[in-house]
Every structure is written in C-alpha cells, then in structure tokens.
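Reading a protein record of the kind used here takes only a little practice. These numbers are not coordinates but entries in a learned vocabulary of local backbone shapes. Here is one such record, which you should read through line by line.
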Amino acid sequence: MEGQDILYEVRGKVAIITLNLPKKLNALNQDQYTLLGKLVERADNEEDTVLTLLQATGRYFSAGANVADKKMSNIDPKVLFSHEYWLSTFVARNVWLTELFHNHKKILAAAVNGPVIGLSTGLLALCDLIYAIDTSKVYLLAPFANLGLVAEGASSATLFHRLGWSKASEALLLAKPIPGEELERLGFINKSYNGKFSSTEEFNQAVYDELVGYFENLHEDSIFQNKQLLKAQRDQWITSANSREVSRGFYKWLEGVPQSRFVQISQKEIKHKL
C-alpha cells in the first residue's frame, strides 16, 4: 500500500508524502488515513529534514473519506453500533491524526492541486504553508452536516481562526464550499500559481523548488523553535476542539445517523455536497 496509494520519499531536506489515488479523487479509507498518519509520523522523525511536503496526484487533493468504501451492510449490526468499534475506528484514529498534524516539528506544507473535502480539510488547515495550483480549481468543503456528522480534524477551531466566524459558519453550518478565491483573499492560501502550470506534476515540482529556495540559507534550529512558538499559540484550542469533536462524532456513529445518510446518498435519496 505504501508504494501505491500513498507515496513517501526523502529528497534533500524535504520529506514528500503524495496521495496517489487519482481515480478515487484521493478519497481515503480507514486504512489509508492510518497510513497517512504513519507517514507523517515517519517524516517528523527524519533526522536530516527541515520540511514535510504533502501533495497529491490527479485533479483533487483529497475528497476526504471514501464513502463508497463504507459497506455498512457487510458489517454485523451488533458491531456497527458498538462502542468498541467506533472507539477504535473513529475516536482513536481522529484524535491521533489531528495531534500528529498539530504537533509536527518540521515545517508542514501542502501543495494543493484541487478540492479538499471532509477530514482532509481539517488536516490541511493544520499545515503551516499552503500553495494552490489555481484558485479556480481549489475549494474547501466540510460536508459534515450533509453526512450527519460534526466537524473533524479540529476544523471547528482552525476554520474559525483561519477564515473568520462568518466563513467558518458557512463551511460547517451550511456545508457550503469555500472557493479558492476566498481562501486566498482571507490568507488561508500563501500563494496561488493561477494558470501557470498545465499539470499537477509541474505544480508539485515548482512548490518543492520554491520552498527549498526559501529555507536553504536559514538557521534550521531557529526554524524549529519558531515553529514551536507559533504552535504554542494554538495548543489549547486545537486540543480542546479535537476532544469535543470526536466525543460528539462518536455518539453520531452510535446513533447510526451517518450510516443512514451514506445509504441515502448511495441510493440518491439525498444529494452529496460533492
């Protein structure tokens, strides 16, 4: 899986993690989200790197959770509504992933080649630097209300702090996509290369080259210490949001609300915001 669905390489002082499921719009199932966490953890422990770069292939950065992979009908109902199942597959995983991204010691950057949806939105918002291929091709979508869920990945805190109350309310209360132009205007995106690249591969390489050029003459320990000083300003609200989100989401799964919504979406009884 590591060599196909999600790629990992160290190039110079950069650890590169690539979501590589273009035919599935880089939507991740439970195992793939766990693999993503393991690779972020691996990058954090690399001895000689300064930066971890998240990128993707195809036209989506990540369509979030792979809804088609959630074959609820094949799971024993006793398991599907058990505390044990959701504590392990949802609560523990989401807490762990969010903390990994939040506590990453290196510069954490993302090369965003297209839409970002669901849990991936929350994880992206924990990155230090965000570069977009084109604002017309990028949007954030937090469709939790559409799916009968609540915010994930500390997005109830990060979207508020990075976008402001009004836009965060549109995103979380109305499951409204936030377009790239708005993300750039509000400072969520550091830079957009509008119309400059014809392929995701060219864009990914350009982001890598630009970032390496920025830090090559900087004092590495100063970078890491400044990262810790910046992170300290958000420690409390990220940790608090993460805890509250998984607690509320856990009971949604136990009630069977998301399971029912997934079935309705698959049967086209309701529309997926995607």
Summary: Residues 6-266 form a domain with the 2-enoyl-CoA Hydratase; Chain A, domain 1 fold (CATH 3.90.226.10). The chain has a mean pLDDT of 92.
